[in-house]
Design brief:
The structure holds two protein chains of two kinds. By secondary structure, chain A is an alpha/beta fold. Chain A has helices at residues 51-58, 78-81, 84-93, 110-120, 125-139, 154-166, 184-199, 214-217, 236-241, 243-248; strands at 11-22, 25-36, 40-45, 66-71, 74-75, 94-97, 172-176, 203-208, 220-224, 230-235, 253-259, 262-268. Chain B has a domain at 161-250. Chain B is built from nine helices and two strands; from the N terminus they run ααααββααααα. Chain B has helices at 9-25, 35-51, 55-71, 80-94, 132-158, 161-170, 175-205, 212-243, 262-280, and strands at 107-113, 127-131. Chains A and B meet through helix 3 and helix 4 of A and helix 7 and helix 8 of B.
């Protein structure tokens, strides 16, 4: 386990006793983690365990109720988030993909959508067009450029949202349940794209409860328990092998059935790689 | 929402509104007047319509605008569902003002003697009549609404709402105001989808059509749900905007155009002239 008090230049995120409450309801409790440059980290947890909240805190969209969160060595707090130079740098380096693409797609057409982030970051119009074209090619959406986002299918919206995120060329990518609503082909494309990004040195932090995709998406997993605390922080393969842990955090359930006269109980999750009797 | 829709009025209404909003966003077949010129013309013509008092002049303005729409080949047909609804609401609002109860004046038609018990509301009123002044007020109000609808229809057939908003920004309207307007416009479609989903969910669980009371209850419950959803959506959307680098006081827009050309100046000139002539004659 790394020493949580040391922040070096390779550290992207460093949280210390990070807690967050919605009113009097705890969403995260005393989370201390360090994420280094180029890591592929999965946030695992059952519904309402605090995964999306942690991502929102990492993107500076929420502020901690207590504890602290640092990004690139600087604390995310009202002072830093009112510092325009820092915010511009932070927003160009960190991008988030929301679970519901509808909240992310504001513009009349996909073309305008892709122009949105580079425009806000102050790029010139020719640069904006070039960046948008390149992101559209990466996401395979060049044929959708003149379509209004609300007329797209769920998978297409995800692609557009992802392309829009890429226009900032971020070094840190936060993904909130990215494969929700994707068909198998799009999922496969998405996983390959994430592998390319990781190979390019980007830091990828992905929240999911889809254990089948975990080995493809991450090397390290942070498991959030239903008490909103970190239940485990280890390599993805080790987490997948720890069935007691997965049962305790409600990521798998026990399944009882009969084989003739024999009553049989085993951990169960559909599509899980180790699902066997 | 494309294809055939159910034959109940709510489904048809929602589909019609969505059809209009989708059509509004399409750029392909527009004559494309420079957005700032389009905005100036729109504001001037609407101002003219509000300053004109004579119903005959308003009628003339409406006819001239329809002729202009023909010359510009502006397709106004897709706005028909919105126009119909707006015209009905305007007529309903204007209707009471034809009576002497609202607009006293010279009587044109006697409707009914007011029962003695009701006279305490208006002691001097013994008979309900339609007045000439009332007809003028009602027709003025109704025609103003129609003229404004035709004007906005023409402008919207020449430019997309997004570019008109960029034009407003180009004319110095604060970015915060326009960004709120832009997001309202964008999320109108998402909320329409929610409304359509709610309605379909209700239809799927209702074997027969309910009466007015049950429809009313459903409508009020739906409005509550929509309010909650729109509130949540607004929160999420604000976060998505912040995460994508938006600073509300320097919200940046896609450039509207390279700048006005001769045809754009001609368009503004004709609009200004039409308004000025109607105000002066």
């Amino acid at each position: 386990m790394p020493d949580m008090n040391i922040t070096d230049e390779n550290t992207v995120y460093h949280t210390s006793d990070l807690s967050f409450k919605y009113g009097d309801k705890t969403a995260l409790d005393s989370v201390s983690v360090r994420i280094r440059k180029g890591e592929r980290v999965a946030l695992l947890g059952a519904n309402a365990s605090g995964k999306s909240t942690l991502l929102a805190l990492m993107d500076g969209l929420l502020l901690p109720s207590s504890g602290s969160i640092k990004v690139f060595g600087r604390e995310l707090c009202p002072v830093s988030l009112n510092d325009r130079r820092f915010v511009r740098h932070f927003r160009s380096q960190v991008a988030i993909l929301f679970q519901n693409p509808d909240v992310q797609l504001f513009s009349d057409t996909v073309r305008d959508e892709l122009a949105f982030v580079p425009l806000q970051l102050g790029l010139s119009w020719p640069e904006v067009r070039e960046v948008s074209r390149s992101a559209a090619e990466i996401a395979g959406i060049t044929d959708l450029m003149d379509r209004p986002p609300h007329t797209l299918s769920g998978g297409e919206k995800k692609r557009v949202a992802l392309a829009s995120m890429l226009t900032a060329d971020p070094s840190v990518i936060l993904l909130d349940e990215p494969t929700t609503g994707m068909d198998p082909r799009t999922q496969h494309w998405f996983i390959e794209l994430m592998e390319e990004f990781a190979a390019g040195g980007r830091t990828i932090i992905v929240s999911t409860h889809d254990l089948a995709l975990l080995p493809e998406l991450a090397d390290r997993a942070l498991v959030l328990g239903e008490d909103h605390r970190i239940a485990a922080d280890a390599d993805a393969a080790g987490i997948l092998a720890d069935l007691d842990l997965l049962l305790s955090v409600n990521l798998i359930h026990e399944h009882t059935h009969r084989h003739g006269m024999l009553k049989h109980t085993h951990p169960h999750l559909h599509a899980m790689p180790y699902h066997s009797h | 929402m494309s294809g055939r829709t159910r034959h109940d009025p709510v489904s048809r209404g929602l589909a019609a509104i969505e059809g209009v909003t989708v059509r509004l966003a399409q750029e392909s077949d527009r004559a494309a007047v420079e957005p700032r010129c389009a905005v100036i013309s729109l504001i001037w013509l609407i101002l003219t319509a509000t300053l004109i008092h004579s119903p005959l002049k308003l009628l003339l303005m409406g006819v001239l605008l329809l002729a202009a729409a023909g010359v510009l080949r502006a397709d106004l047909r897709y706005l028909a569902p919105v126009w119909r609804a707006a015209a009905i609401v305007a007529a309903l609002l204007a209707f009471p003002s034809i009576f002497n109860l609202i607009t006293p004046g010279s009587d044109l038609m006697r409707i009914i003697d007011i029962p003695a018990g009701w006279r305490s509301l208006h002691p001097n009123l013994t008979v309900l009549t339609v007045t000439a002044e009332g007809l003028t007020v009602a027709s003025r109000f109704f025609l103003r609404v129609i003229v404004c609808l035709i004007t906005s229809g023409i402008i919207l057939s020449l430019q997309t709402p997004r570019k008109l908003m960029a034009g407003l920004r180009g004319l110095g309207v604060p970015a915060l105001f326009i960004s709120v307007m832009a997001l309202m416009y964008r999320y109108l479609i998402v909320l329409l989808r929610y409304a359509a989903e709610l309605h379909r969910a209700r239809l799927s669980r209702s074997p027969a059509r309910g009466g007015i009371v049950s429809d009313g209850k459903w409508a009020s419950v739906s409005m509550g749900i929509m309010f909650k959803r729109s509130f949540r959506l607004a929160e999420d959307m604000h976060m998505a905007m912040l995460s994508r680098g938006v600073a509300t006081d320097e919200y940046r827009f896609v450039p509207a155009s390279a700048g006005p050309v001769t045809g754009d100046y001609l368009f503004v000139g004709c609009s200004l002239l039409l308004g000025a002539l109607l105000l002066l004659i």
